[in-house]
Amino acid sequence: MKSTATIHAEQYRTALLDDVVPFWEQHSLDIRYGGYFTCLERDGRVYDTDKFVWLQARQIWTFAMLYNRVEPRPDWLAMARHGVDFLRAHGMDEEGNWYFALTREGAPLVQPYNIFADCFAALALGQYSLAVEDEEAEQLAVQTYRNILQRQDNPKGQYNKLVPGTRPLRSFALPMILCNLSLELQELLPPDEVTATIDACVHAVMEVFLDPESHLVFEHVAPDGSRVDSFEGRLLNPGHGIEAMWFIMDIARRRDDQALIERAAGTILSILEASWDPRYGGIYYFLDAHGHPPQQLEWSQKLWWVHLETLVALTMAYRQTRGEAYWEWYQRVYDYAWTRFPDREHGEWYGYLNRRGEVLMPLKGGKWKGCFHVPRALYRCWQEFEALASEL
Question: What 3-state class would DSSP assign to 125?
């Protein structure tokens, strides 16, 4: 197993540093107006110049993270700074909320309805501030983080299109991401504040949204945590649930809480058993908890980030538990993902496959796919396998 772990570590390292990172370095930089192009064709050609704030921020985080955790290369820091300068100049409204989309030049295009733009802005600025002495970036990261906490109960604010009070729902995505964001910003925040936020988010993920009977994670619940029999109330997003479980394992590992690790790891298996396509392989994008037709027409697509986050989660689960079931599932997901998503000719990974596992759209970036899930997952798996090899 030691040699296997070493081989996998090298595969992930090589894919990250020799393939994926160079793709974004070569094709995404907007020299004229700042920031990054994210709408890239298969070969890296730009097909749209709009700039989505959460993808700008995710790319800042990626290059700052590489600088901080892999090697302090000046070109990686310059790449991160290029995005930071653009977002500081154009990214926020007067109230400190982050727009969702900007024009190429930086003019506001889509209002700040999506709190995840704020989440990734805080993530990016926090990581960047660890790389350089930039007090403004640090303060802006903390200010944005606290603004997110204040908006938790009504994330969309005035842009919420639902009629208030008719069917109030709590959404899983925000407590999920706050688990990770709070860890990322822990060096910039008071320890008590980090602990309190993480405790609340772990409780929400593991006691409210994780169903104790099915061991599946629901995307929406009623304010009291009960299930709601509606499209939204029955919605399962397997990738979200699995990604959240590696966030939880990350927290549990830092707290030396093996029981929480075991529970999160077991939840990964439950989600995979429910969401693996028995006919064509791969993990479904969306499911209805009662087996009804999902509202999302793309429910059966196989997405890059779902499979990458699953590889991270299974690698972590196996390393922490040595359970054979995690290794067997890892091999199954690995065989599916590595034979379908990487583009051997032009580099990087495809994002969207149809149910049969065929490339549905050959783009490498767009409104939702940017420089984040692929490099982050490759880095995390590289590190987990390298550590596993040293432990064997």
Answer: helix
